[in-house]
Amino acid sequence: MSYYKIGDLEQYFKHYKKSVREPRKFWGKIAEENFVWYQAWDKVFDFDMEKHDIKWFTDGKLNIVKNCIDRHLSKRGEKAALIFEPNDINEQAQVISYNELYVRVAKMANVLKSQGIEKGDRVCIYLPMIPELAIAMLACARIGAIHSVIFAGFSAEAIKTRVEDCGAKMVITSDGGFRGAKTIQLKNIVDDAIKDLSSVEKVLVVKRTNEAVQMKEGRDLWLAPLYEVAEESNVAQIMDSEDPLFILYTSGSTGKPKGMVHTTAGYMIQTAYTFNNVFDYKDDDIFWCTADLGWITGHSYILYGALLNGATTVMFEGVPSYPNPSRFWDIIDKHKVTQFYTAPTAIRSLMTEDYSYITGHDLSSLRILGSVGEPINEEAWHWFNDFVGKKRCPIVDTWWQTETGSILISPLANVTPTKPTYATLPMPGIQTVLMDELHNEITGNQVMGSLCIKFPWPSMARTIWNDHERYVQTYFSDFPGCYFTGDGALRDEVGYYRITGRTDDVVIVSGHNIGTAPIEDAINQHPAVAESAVVGYNHDIKGNGLYGFITLKVEGTTRDRENVKKEINQLITSHYGPIGKLDKIQFVEGLPKTRSGKILRRLLRSIATNRLDTFGDTSTMINPEVVQGIIDERQ
Ligand code: 6R9
Predict the structure, then answer these.
(1) Has residue 504 been placed in a domain?
(2) Quick one: pLDDT at residue 510?
(3) What residues contact 517, with CB distance under 8 A and at least 6 apart?
(4) Which atom of ligand 1 is nearest to the CA of 423?
(5) Residue 273 shares a structural domain with residue 371
(6) Which PROSITE patterns does this one have (predicted)?
(7) Closest Cα to atom 5 of ligand 1
(8) At what angle do helices 98-114 and 131-143 cross, to 10 degrees?
(9) Are 173 and 221 in a shared domain?
């Protein structure tokens, strides 16, 4: 019996049970039957939960890139691996076959080696969404270097913190990057970031925009001449199952960003497995995930999960609004995309555009839609379902984290019946539990609590780079014996999970615990509202009051604002109950967001509570320009 593919709901329950009762057998079989190894593992897992030392597939030897590329060559060498859609509609898309990808990765790997990069060295990659980004990641993995991708929208300060923390020996960047109508001068930003850092020996520069850049003698090298002369084949490095594959930084509510360390075998197996089942992958699919590769979603599903399955994956350099808001629909139509995986923030922004941007595009190739990054509000869910999926594509609302490596709670397309705003059921192998304030497990259904996982899973991050103590403190100290996700969730009458937001975002109003996501859901039903974020602030009578920051759709801005406020509170009362009514409402130009589209509620809370000194790490903010306006007009 094979456990790799789940065919129907009954089989899902069967596999789930098996994964809990006999995890060694379950994961062992998946690992054995679907991947190539140089040497088999000794134990499927080995945990020391005193030290939080977690190992999967001990002493196994493999290379993830051999699994992503080499083993596909005999069967699907000419199949498209990557489709690159450039920012500029006048530039031709590139289709890169598995054969070509092999050569490009091998050449890049040889360049890295020629510049002194060895197994275990850290390489930071600060590139726009161009094929070289994916190729550089794979080249690192091929030679055993640890990649750490830094999103190309980050500031010099954010790069500095990351490069310094991981002690990178090399930075790979480009002269510049195209993003919508803008050009960003990446090389200049890198120069600024690393001027005082001694660990960086080489900066490798890809040509993309032809910006003029300064090349520092002895440190900076253009990629092209080195790449030109590099050998077209490369023997992949033999890696241990637990050798680090990459470090990816994620920001916490306090302190510097955390360098989450993912290792080789467990990450490989679970990203491949979840890609295949969540998106009901079939051989001829064209998979498009709109995330940036600098985000965990890009790592696991644009790149590794997709290539491990021999899939065709689309990489888009630009933004949804350029040259106009029909760009996403253009791309789906042009490349005949079958799976479209995006974020609620993108859906909400496209929803505010005229429907005519969608009509005229043939979206009939679509089979499956996906959402990730934030709770998807009900209105966005329905719009996605009705107008993009035309009510015939299942929506997989996938819940997971940088730390979890792969999707942990999600419907399986064409297997799990969906329910708007619910991430539904845990993946096989994932033992989700809800905990109360006294740290006891809450059993039964129709309950709410802190979402924890009580058994390790293969793709979980193993540590925080250089700070194992912080790893233990952050994830394993709140609920002893369990991994704490930081999110709250409710479990409905059939056992489906709905994520209610970060538990930091729970507000206690007059003694009632209020998750902000369902209130935002109600607010977003208002026809004039584009987006909303609700946070708590100190209130003399209620303990905490609710403060709503709201952006209006263009047509909403002409309405009488006092009326809109009243209607919003009426909506909350009827959908949620009067306890959720907002005490303060502020209409704002934009909500502060992270690069992956998450609303920075922490920052809004600081503004609402008048504590402007508690902003914390804001290096991941994509639109700092909106903050001052919000502060100036705060109520
Ligand atoms: C993959 C990713 C993780 C946090 C997570 C949660 C929120 C992600 C979600 C979701 C509700 C979903 N989140 N997916 N909330 N429903 N489908 O986003 O990783 O950037 O580390 O963020 O995002 O709060 O804890 P990351």
Answers:
(1) no
(2) 77
(3) 375, 377, 499, 500, 501, 505
(4) 17
(5) yes
(6) AMP_BINDING
(7) 401
(8) 60
(9) yes
Q: How far apart are CA 582 and CA 563, in angstroms?
A: 14
b/e per residue 449-466 (b: at least 16 CB within 10 A): bbbbbebbbbbbbbbbbe
Q: What is the pLDDT of residue 253?
A: 62
Task: Using the mean position of ligand 1's atoms as its centre, give its distance from the Cα of residue 228 in Å.
Answer: 41
Looking at the CA of residue 502, tell me the nearest atom of ligand 1: 24
Tell me if 494 is assigned to some domain.
no
Q: Please give the Cα distance from 346 to 10 (Å, whole number).
A: 34
Mark whether 250 and 294 lie in a shared domain: yes
63, part of any domain: yes
How far apart (Å, rounded) are the C-alpha atoms in residues 171 and 124? 5
What CATH number has the domain bearing residue 278?
A: 3.40.50.12780
Which residues of the chain fall below pLDDT 70?
252-254
Determine, yes or no, domain membership for 2: no
**Domain of 142, in residue numbers:** 9-489
Q: Where are the beta strands (DSSP E) in 241-378?
A: 244-250, 258-263, 286-289, 312-316, 339-342, 368-371
CA of 397, closest atom in ligand 1 = 17
Which 3 state secondary structure label does DSSP give 620?
Answer: coil
Q: Which atom of ligand 1 is nearest to the CA of 594?
A: 20
CA–centroid distance, 218 to ligand 1, in Å, is: 42
463 CA to centre of ligand 1 in angstroms: 19
Gap between the Cα atoms of 537 and 429, Å rounded:
39
The Cβ-side half-sphere exposure at 296, using a 13 Å CA radius, reads 26
Q: What is the number of alpha carbons within 13 Å of residue 542 lying toward its C-beta?
A: 20
Q: For ligand 1, is residue 296 a contact (CB within 6 Å)?
A: yes
pLDDT of residue 423: 98
Do 629 and 597 fall within a single domain?
yes
Confirm if 406 and 260 have CB atoms less than 8 A apart: no
Expressed in angstroms and rounded, the spacing between residue 181 Cα and the centre of ligand 1 is 29
Ligand 1 pocket mutation pick from 459, 598, 600, 601 by most atoms within 8 angstroms of CB = 598
For the domain that residue 625 is a member of, what is the CATH number?
3.30.300.30
Question: Hunting for tokens 């839609």 — which residue is that?
Answer: 369
Give, in order, the Cα–Cα distances in Å from 625 to each of 10, 586, 591, 592, 606. Answer: 51, 17, 10, 9, 17
Cα gap 136→477, rounded to integer Å: 36
Q: Which of 427, 458, 489 is the last residue of a domain?
A: 489
Residue ID of nearest Cα to ligand 1 atom 16: 375
Q: How many whole angstroms separate alpha carbon 57 and alpha carbon 39?
A: 11
Looking at the fold, whether 515 and 481 belong to one and the same domain comes out as no
Do 183 and 295 fall within a single domain?
yes
Torsion sign across C-alpha atoms 96, 595, 622, 326: positive
For this complex, say whether ipTM is above 0.95.
yes
620 and 578 assigned to the same domain: yes
Domain tally for the chain?
Answer: 2
What is the sign, positive or negative, of the torsion defined by CA atoms of 288, 292, 293, 298?
Answer: negative
Q: Which of 267, 274, 372 to mutate to test the pocket of ligand 1 (most atoms within 8 A of CB)?
A: 372
| DSSP secondary structure letter of residue 412 | P
Beta strand pairing call for 432-435 and 447-453: antiparallel
